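Today's session is about reading a structure prediction critically. Students often jump straight to the picture, but the first step is always the sequence itself: look for stretches that repeat, for charged clusters, for runs of hydrophobic residues. Only then move on to the predicted structure, which in these notes is written as discrete structure tokens rather than atom positions. Here is the chain we will use throughout the hour.
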Amino acid sequence: MNKLEDLLDNFWNTHKNNAGVAYVYSHKLSIAWILCVIIAVVLGVVYQGKVAMFRGIAEASETIISVPSATEIVKVHVVPGQEIHAGDTIVQINRPDLTLRIAELTREIDALEGRSNLSSAEIDQKVADVKANLETRRLTLTAEIRNLEAEYQSNKAISAKLKSLSNSKSQSDGNDAMAMRIKSLKNELALATKSANEQIALLRGSSKLQKASGKSEAENLKKELEEMQKQQEELIQIAKEDWVVGDVNVRDGEKVSSFAPIVTLAHKSPTLVRGYINEQIYQNMDLGEAVKVTTLAGTGKAVVGEVVGLSSRIVAFPERMWKMPEMPVYGREVTIKIPENNPFLLGEMVTISETSGKKLKKNENK
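Below is the predicted structure for this chain, in token form.
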């Protein structure tokens, strides 16, 4: 009987202890869960939806050599991956249509200037003829008027002495007719002078109009010729700064269509980073904000860049940034400008993180 009582006491004490442990464990678990929720809320308030870190790819601005019309490649002086410097020849191009057009424009300008000079000479000759005819007519009329005026004065003197004669009336009628003739000749001279001056003014106005029209046409042709000559100078493409040759899409002697890319050039060091933020994460980032860019492994000194572009749409990440094959990842694209003096390789994947400074320009001014 005593043994049975001892067994019951042990069973009761054991279950009593287990219940206490379970109660304590459950209480601690509840406290831990509440603490996690509180921490999550606090972090959400502090960071306000910010992402501490995301990835991107280091890139460089590129330039493409092409021409606006069909062309023929004379010689390519570079190969992919080659470093070239300012003054180096990249490619020589031939454009037969350009040479032909330059010759046509030169002939048209010469012909236009020749026609303009000829027209001016013809008009000057016509003006001289009008002046000569006017002078001849003026001399003739002036002489006739002078003779009539002399005769008129003589008749008046004779008429004054013979007032008492019977034929004095007929003499007076003759003087009146002579006076009318003199007046008519003077009117004719004035009319001839006026007509000649009008012809000269018309000819000179026509000359000015032709010169202005010819000058305008010549200027347009000369502008086109200058543009053609400029394009001809660019047939030998010379590097204006240091580059690294990307793609060479042509060979010597090959014919290329208009605006087809001939050679692609890029800077030796990356000048920008194209970052990608997952669409499931809200990113509170502004233009001009300063960010730190480091290698994917986090080694080396961080480079401070500036956010210069924020896409307004969701785009697909590059395939190399997919976590699993055949499962595209989408997000927001961020463009970051970085100094040319940086340790990154072209196409290298990098890590982007926020800095304590909000605006890069403000920090620089300080």
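Discussion point for the tutorial: Residues 96-161 form the longest helix (66 residues).
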